[in-house]
Amino acid sequence: MDRNRKWVPSFGAVLLILLSHMTSALEVPLDLPQPPTITLQSPKDYIFDPRENIVIHCEAKGKPHPSFSWTRNGTHFDVEKDSKVLMKPGSGTLVIDISGEKAEAYEGTYQCTAHNEHGTAVSNSIVIRQSRSPLWSKERNEAMVVQMGVSLVLQCRPPAGLPPPVIFWMDNNFQRLLLDKRVSQALNGDLYFSNVLREDTRSDYICYARFPHTQTIQQKQPISVTVVDNRPEGERRPGFMMPLGTTSNKMVLRGETLELECIADGLPTPEISWQKDGGELPSSRMSFSNFKKTLKVSDVNEADGGNYRCTATNNLGTVQHIIKVTVKAAPFWVSAPRNLILAPNETGILTCRVNGEPKPKITWFVNGVSLENAPEDHSRKVDDDTVILSNVQSGSSAVYQCNASNEFGYLMANAFVNVLAEPPRVLTPPNRVYQVIANNPALLHCASFGSPIPTITWFKDIQTSVKNGDPYVIHENGTLEIHVAQPLNSGKYTCIATNNLGIKENHVYLEVKEPTRIIKQPEYKVVQKGMSAVFECKVKHDPSLIPTMTWLKDNGELPDGRFEVNVDSLTITDVTDGDEGTYTCIMNTTLDQDSASAMLTVVEATPTPAIVYEKPDAPTDLELTDQTERSVQLTWTPGDEHNSATQKFLIQYEDLLHQPGVWINLTDVAGTSTTAQLNLSPYVYYSFRVLAVNHVGYSQPSQPSSQYRTNPAAPDENPSDIQCVGTKPGHLVISWTSLTGFQANGPGLEYKVQWRQKDVDEDWSSKTVANVSQFVVSGTPIYVPYEVTVQALNDYGSGPKPDVVIGHSGEDLPLSAPDSVQIMVTNSTLAEVHWEPVSLPSVRGKLQGYKVHYRRERGLHDIEEDTEQQEQVLTFSGNRSEGRLPGLQPYSRYNLTITVLNNKGEGPPSPSKTFETPEGVPGPPSFLNAVNPGLDSLTLEWGPPTNNNGRLAGYTLKYQPVNTTNELGPVKIMALLANETTITLGNLNSSMLYKFYLSAKTIKGSGPIITEEAFTVMDTTRSQPTVEPGKGPTEPPHPTSPITQSPHPPFHKVPPVGPAFGKVNTSMSEDGAVISWDYFGHHKNVYVEYIVENSKADWIKELVNGSHWHMIKGLKPGTSYKVRVVARDPADPTVHSTDEVLVAVPAVPSRQVDIATQGWFIGLMCAIALLILVLLIVCFIKRNKGGKYPVKEKEDAHQDPEIQPMKEDDGTFGEYSDTEDHKPLKGSRTPSNGTVRRDESDDSLVDYGEGGDGQFNEDGSFIGQYSGKKEKDTHEGNESSEAPSPVNAMNSFV
């Protein structure tokens, strides 16, 4: 033998040795060195909405924490150089702000790299593309004129969007075109007519394309079709409009949905059918749509390849088309590579098993670099889908990438190889205590880590080794399981983790607790009103667990007050009618609970009678006479009745042979009798007793009579309640209620069971059995009728002839599914379903009915299926062929199947049918708020309905004012668009309450309304009454809050909270005394009352409804008056009044002298006017003499102002033209300093006016005042010193 040979493990041996590495999938604790692991990344194909930021996810873990970098289109992407790109701290996730940017600039292929000193992990290649919804190319559709009966195709040709649009055809009224067997829409969106009819004439065939990501809809120009019948097409054989020819090819990828369509023309309209050559259609994954013109097969696999034959048939012939389906496959995982944790000098294997069609090409990378370009490593061997790492060394940790690709896609996975020499560590916390209830499973954990992988062993109480086997199971991850924990399993358990670098142990404790049990349950109570009720609830529990007792009434909390909870009881004092109900005691511990319930009945208290009534005394002196085989006479002496007449006597017997100690009611007789003739049964040892009954109750029983024995005889009766049912196929169970020993009439009781198939000429089969109450006949046909009898026998003969009972043998599941399922949609929430009932033999049991299974797939406005919708089931009992489906959701797509039902269960489902519900009215808007109240305006904001139930057509807004007496004003109605969620209402009254009603609407009508109430802002210029000379006061506004919202209309009046009146103010005017007040009440009648001070006369009243001020006229000068404001309501006797205030009327009212009427003032004004006229005449004379003013000098300096050049663009004069329009338009703004920017020219006409106040008339003429010299005002820039200009005046309103 060669002593120098080294043992080299074969590939199979290495695989077997390292199986534990591959299956355990250990997680490396994050405090240990480890290469990066990608934990989150974006999908491979990411289509973004250009209205939102682009977020590309890339998260990874590792020790040390990895750093991140990106490539775009294969080159390094420097994130820091682009201010629009942000990388989240501590991760590689990119957030790209595309607001204000061209989103196309960020399209491309991105790949993330996570790196630390132990390796590099890379993400998938993430293709970033912008969603697109291009416009329809402009085209002009020629009107089409076709003969009746010919076929027709209306092409849609939608623009290519990303993702592709959803196509549908509608008319000008946004109504979907009705599709049927004759008119159908192809998968490419084209509209096909197998033959046209006269009613197909219309000018508004419109193809719509809805782009999912942007939720935009584009429409094609309407197509006009006119059908004429001057040369109508006759009947013809079918022909295929799509696909053309006799054969075509279709390729589909594994896992996708195969869609095949055949659209045929012909007259009459052809029927389409499908079959697969050489095989069956996969019924569980197959569905038809578009009136069987489209065949869909979901989750395609390789077996779905082959020839699919579609056949079009009408009464003139048949045509076929074969579609050759080829199934290809993008790469898919058979076994993805998994992380390896190896100790130095260990060997490991990475496997990357994939499949696909064509066969994928596998490429290996290490730390993101192809193995062909990576540094050579002699310990690494690559064999196609396997990498073998032999005798790895410290420092050789790395991340390997496996890329499998073919022409249809790729797969890429990271798997690190972490070379660690790490002694064992136990990750489960030490001294953990596990508590379980006896007879339940117990799991004791021992999570560990080490390299090499530790071996786990368990010990109980340190000494006893725990081995795999009953009752213990040691799982691969080290967890110890005890299937059924018992108290003897309690104790200390030690798990020991061992590898060649060390050993680590951990102790845990198991405590098996006794279950909690209620040993004395509360009992039913009948308690008189006003008394106390006590429910007991005694519990046994493990002494180490802390119990908590909880009492419930009718499964709710106990009311407050008269309920006293003690340790083991509940006491209810002073019981009332409301205390009736079910009381439950619940005993909880941290591990389990137990509960019990009892009822309480409350009755009226019994009044104390004047006479004491008691139960009667027991009868005495029982005697048996006239004894025969089947009868005897019993006599007795009644006891004392205690003031209540005996109503009856109850006679009981005891059967000392069969039921000793049990007294059974035999008969009763009137309370006036003292004898009874008793009918007896054979083979009974009788003993009798008698009880007396009055209205108080039963007496004590009498002493038993002497014993009387009857002789045995044959049974008088047969077993009762005979049933003949089949519990499973091939079985017939015959059961009955056995006779009691009393009914047996003698010893040796048996039963003779007979059966035979009904309506079949055969003899009875029989079996005699004893001491049982059922008999099972096996080997019977499925669900056939049987005749059955059961007769009683004993040692003295047979019972009477038994009655025949009809039953059926065991049922089996139905074989057939209902056929010809049709669905008629009645309205948006109701549909009728019709089907062809199955044949009764196929039911194979008693027909219970039909079950309709239906589920809402999605709303018609949704793209993706609603996976959260639960399937709904309706059962229609009996042999039905139709049913109604209520409660459907409008504007939705449903899927429906029907099964037949017997007692065994449901049969196979019918082929799946889909149907769509039309639109309905929408739900209410989700909210309605009033914001930004102004003096004469309010802004409303609202949210769209939660359930549109169709295409939202818009909103209807109604609003009306509400005055202070809660009377409603006229209603105004507005129609709003569907995309509006806010509106500002103008021309409203200030300080006014308005009520708003808003509802959404679809084409089916308006939905429920939502209401809101709000006030406009109070007019502050009217907040206090003021008195001007010769004028009355103005009215202050109502003291209201600006916005209120209430779910109830503002018609219900409530009394004020607090005082109805606030402060009262008084003032005097020439016309009288002005009284004003604050009022917070709702009373209809408000008065101002006044009286002369110290007078005993009645108060004078003046009605002032709806106002907050009033003027008292006609008061006597020099007199003082007491004044108050009073509010009265005819429906409320309460009178609300202000405090009395004192108003003194002046004796001689002061009058202001009007200076404009004085003579001296008129004369002075005339003199000044004359002087100004003289000065103007002098100035005019001097100007005509050629006198120079500064203005003249300016004009001379400009030579000839009449020949100034004009601007080419607008024809205005170059120097004096106003290049900016200083007249502010609506919504415009002027500079913040309130001035208009002057022209750049040095010579402005403004310079010649004082203080810069020169102004122009509307025609542009200068109206400023010439001054003798040009000078700057020392207060220039001080607005208070300037005369107001037109521009400044406009600024005050901006």
Automatic annotation (TrEMBL):
Q: How does it sit in the membrane?
A: Single-pass type I membrane protein
Single GO cellular component term: axon
Report the superkingdom from the record.
Eukaryota
- Annotated Fibronectin type-III domain residues: 618-713, 718-812, 817-920, 921-1020, 1055-1148
User: Which cell locations does it reside in?
Assistant: Cell membrane
Q: What residue spans carry the Polar residues bias annotation?
A: 1280-1294
Q: What is this protein called?
A: Neuronal cell adhesion molecule
- Gene Ontology terms, MF aspect: cell-cell adhesion mediator activity
Record-stated family: Belongs to the immunoglobulin superfamily. L1/neurofascin/NgCAM family.
Query: Keyword Signal on this protein?
Result: yes
The organism named in the record is Zoarces viviparus
Transmembrane feature ranges:
1160-1181
> Where does the record place the region Disordered?
699-718, 1021-1050, 1190-1294
- Signal sequence span is 1-25
User: Basic and acidic residues: which segments have biased composition?
Assistant: 1190-1210, 1268-1278
Q: Which UniProt keywords apply?
A: Cell adhesion, Cell membrane, Disulfide bond, Glycoprotein, Immunoglobulin domain, Membrane, Repeat, Signal, Transmembrane, Transmembrane helix
Keyword Cell inner membrane: yes or no?
no
Could you mention a single GO BP entry for this protein? Answer: brain development
The residue ranges of the Ig-like domain are 36-123, 134-224, 238-326, 331-418, 424-511, 515-601
